[in-house]
Amino acid sequence: MKRSLARLAVVAVLAGLSGTALGHAYVHMTHMPAGWFHDVEMRVPHGCGPDPTTEVRVKIPDGVLRVTVAHDPDWQAETIMRELDPPIEMGEGYEIKQTVDEIVWTGSELPTRRFGRFMFRALLPEEPGRILWFKTIQRCGEDKELRWDKEKTDDSQPMGVFLRVVPDSSPFVVLTEPERPQYDF
Ligand SMILES: [Cu+2]
């Protein structure tokens, strides 16, 4: 009897944590090779308290280009563009004048106890060591909003510590030195 009560207490503490310090919006992979085209899967692991998620907005950081949003039969995805001034030379006379600034998914409902996947692919900048912050806003109906938008500004602070102490940290990807080239496809 005593033991099961103790177990209940532990479960209660973990449940409390999962609502605050653990399980916020995050990118499924924490490390990706710099300069690669890569799939980015944003995960939204819970709603706003009991309320289901009805909108997800992801801000695309500087230097992340050629964003394509994956088709999702449940959600409508809209892309908001931003001008690039000056345009970016991609080689062979090809230049980019506009890029995706923000992706907005609406038109569906993600139950609070299910995780949702919001996918796109993009060309990642050739900057090994840089942390890309994919700031995310999650809305549940008209008046509830969760903002996952805090960046780590202190380079000496380990990521694990930052994630523990900043409950509304932004989803991120750390760019790594590629171990091999990515061939065109
Ligand atoms: Cu959370």
How is this structure best described in words?
With 185 residues, this protein is mainly beta. The protein has one domain: Uncharacterised protein YcnI-like PF07987, DUF1775 (Immunoglobulin-like, Sandwich). The protein has 2 helices and 12 strands, in the order H-E-E-E-E-E-E-E-E-E-E-E-H-E. The protein has helices at 2-20, 159-165; strands at residues 26-27, 31-33, 37-44, 55-59, 65-69, 76-89, 95-106, 116-123, 131-133, 136-140, 144-148, 172-176. The chain has a 5-stranded antiparallel β-sheet, with no helix packed on it. The longest helix is centred in the first third of the chain and has 19 residues, at 2-20. Mean pLDDT is 89; it is low at 5-22. The structure holds copper (II) ion (CU). Copper (II) ion binds at residues 23-24, 46.
Write down the CATH class. Mainly Beta
Give the count of structural domains.
1
Strand order of the largest sheet: 6-7-4-10-11
How does the helix and strand content classify structurally? mainly beta
The helix content, as a percent range, equals: 10-25%
Low-confidence stretches: 5-22
Rg, please? 19 Å
**Helix count, per DSSP?**
2
Give the strand content: 35-45%
Biggest sheet architecture: 5 strands, antiparallel
Extended strand count: 12
The shape, in one word, is globular
By CATH's scheme, which homologous superfamily applies?
Uncharacterised protein YcnI-like PF07987, DUF1775
Ligands bound, unique = copper (II) ion
* Chain-averaged pLDDT: 89
Quaternary structure classification? single chain
Write the H/E string, N to C. Answer: HEEEEEEEEEEEHE
CATH fold descriptor: Immunoglobulin-like
CATH architecture: Sandwich
